[in-house]
Sequence to fold (287 residues):
Amino acid sequence: MLSQSATPDRHLDSLKTAVRLPGQSSTHIYYLHTSPEYPMKRLLCAGSGDIFYLGKVFRNGDLSPRHQVEFTMLEWYRLGFSLAEMMQETAEVIQVVLGNLPIEVLTYQQAFLQYANLANIHNATAAECRACLRAFNLPEVVGVEADDKALWEQLVLTEVIEPQLGVDRITCLSHYPAREAALAQISTGNPQEALRFEVFVHGMELANGYQELQEAGATHRRFQQSLQQRQADGVETVPLDNRLLAGLTDAGLPACSGVALGVDRLFSLAIGAHQLSEVMTFSIENA
Fold:
């Protein structure tokens, strides 16, 4: 769980600790992983084959009924799996715990049409997103630039669409905007879309997965873009995982898809709990 590097994702803040090693006078900074993605991909490059992790991950600054600083994640990778196959398997894993709920698959664009009456969200304007929020009688949002399309779009997604997803079903939402690809491949059929999906049940996001980006150069460029975003936002920069980049360069990542699933969220839905702390032996509040 400890690494000399950390995720550069602008929305994730890693916990860090000072490690003292024998024979060395100074301490070294190590980071607790926000996800096992990077070491798992190093193992995939080394020939591990299909692989899973079930254990703790850590995200600094996260605390709400649906968030904890320390929580349990199930993450797995399947060689040769397409995005559609990964969504299907993820839904089947969720069914093991929640029962035989029907499975719904929607693209990001279809969801905006179906639940927010926005026909083509990739080409919609910030003004159209603001009008959508007003049409659904949501409180006025202040402090957001009027022409910040990406942020207004995100507000429509979180405030209008997500609460309607996964009602008495498992909803797989796929083909997110390319700007939110993280380490997912870009669709060859539409460069505006990434081969990324999330899974929702009763309005709660349970899982996030990709058809994985394989190219070392593209991965490094995305890491650098994330670092630039952190700097622009005034967020502390972090050291990149150069061992992962070396593995991608030297051996290469096999064609695969991967997904991370929040176990505590899944169990909270199973028992009807309203907060993650209800399904955790020791939440951060009583650690």
Summary: Helices lie at 37-45, 83-98, 108-116, 126-135, 149-161, 216-232, 242-250, 263-271. The chain has a mean pLDDT of 96. The longest helix spans residues 216-232.
